[in-house]
Amino acid sequence: MDVEFPWYSTWAGADPVFPALVLPTSGLSYGELRERIEEERRRLAGAGLNPGDRVVVDVGDPESWVVALLATLAGGAQAILPDSDWPPSRRRRALAPPSPGFLLRRGRKGALRLIRRGQAADPGYDLPEGAGVWLFTSGPAAPPVPYFRDGALLRLMVESLRARWPASLARSRPAVVSTAPLAHGFALMNSLLLTHAIGGTLVQSDAEDAAATVGRVFRHEARVLFAWPAQIRTLARRRLWPRHGGSTLEWCGSSSYRLEPDVARRFFECSGCRVRSQYGMTETGPLCLDGADPPSAHAYCVGPPLDGVELEIVDARNEPAPPGARGRLRVRVDGIALAPQGDPRAFWHTGDIGRIDPQGHVFVYGRAHPFTDERREIYA
Fold first, then answer.
1. Which SS3 state, helix, strand or coil, does residue 65 take?
2. Most buried of the four, 81, 255, 331, 341, by CB within 10 Å?
3. Could you tell me the strand order of the sheet in which 327-333 lies?
């Protein structure tokens, strides 16, 4: 684990009783989390896990899910993260290529499935080496497509995100409330890895229980909130918040789709914290842009690109659009092949409509086509 994400040992050694995870029915300090990771790593090694093997982390209990993910990476293996919200038929289709293997855990809490190198069906391209995470695209119109992100890239993305935070906020080891599922790239990077990189406390909340989420913000004096636009809409209700207002929130990140201006305004009036729109997708990192600083009052503004990210606006013929004009958004990220066999220097068409203002801030207004994961076919 020290090789992939050294901050777990750092914080466990410096302050082992500081809370790392607060879940609806359980919690772990940094010392307890580090101990659980080591126990699970040894158990996986005893079951035959070798560096470069893959583990399907499909565990329903959030605490066990986090431990299994981090233990897989600690063992130099690759974690496959199917979305817990998928229906069974979609889950079977997405996980069909690595189907050979065996279950390491059974029962109501789900299972880990170990796939040794050489067991999986040939996916048509070389499998990556080393530890990392397989994230799946989430468009409803097509079967999910897996993309691999190695540990070095995940660390780089965490550092890019940490650099966007005010230094005082990062140093405060804040409580971070998150309602987004951790198997999604947005929540994995922001809610889990970034929170723990700065030694903060991740407070995971049920996305469907807005009142409980607001309660956790006040109970833990949270300074950060990560949620999706649909979840922010449910939180932007005056009756959920104390009449005096005055929450401790300083940073609220929204991603996955555009945030409507009226929702952003109502949330700001309720919480006193302006929403910071973010943008990315599994194919590209998964985070490319992180809102304007200070957060823009315009909900469609997703801010400037992160370091190493290039964006262009093109017309229907894939020609550069005039400055300030709306067009199709495409992105290029240093060191990432934006397809399983892609060219690292090629631009990826996101399927979204946007524009770039004179200050370099990007605005995303909607989709050019019905949402689909087969974006490469749209522009073929």
1. helix
2. 255
3. 301-303, 362-367, 348-356, 327-333, 309-314
Mean model confidence pLDDT for the chain = 83
Sign of the C-alpha dihedral computed for residues 187, 188, 190 and 191 taken in this order: positive
Residue 213 tokens, joined: 């989420």
Give the chain's length: 380
CB 182 within 8 A of CB 21: no
Whether the ω angle into residue 98 lies within 30 degrees of 0, i.e. cis, is no
Q: Which amino acid is at 13?
A: G
The token pair that represents 49 in the structure block: 């896990």
Furthest-apart CA pair in the chain: how many Å? 61
The residue among 304, 300, 281 whose CA lies nearest residue 292 is: 304
If one compares 301 and 119, the residue with the highest pLDDT of the two is 301
- Give the chain's count of helices (H) and strands (E): 12, 19
Q: What is the 3-state secondary structure (H, E, C) of 203-247?
A: EECCCCCHHHHHHHHHHCCCCEEEECHHHHHHHCCHHHCCCCCCC
CB hemisphere CA count around 145 (13 angstroms): 15
Beta bridge partners, 175, equal 201
For the ranges 87-101, 155-169, 295-309, 310-324, the lowest mean pLDDT is seen at 87-101
Q: What's the CA gap between 206 and 229, in Å, rounded?
A: 15
Identify the band that residue 337 occupies on the pLDDT scale cut at 50, 70 and 90: low
Q: pTM for the whole thing?
A: 0.88
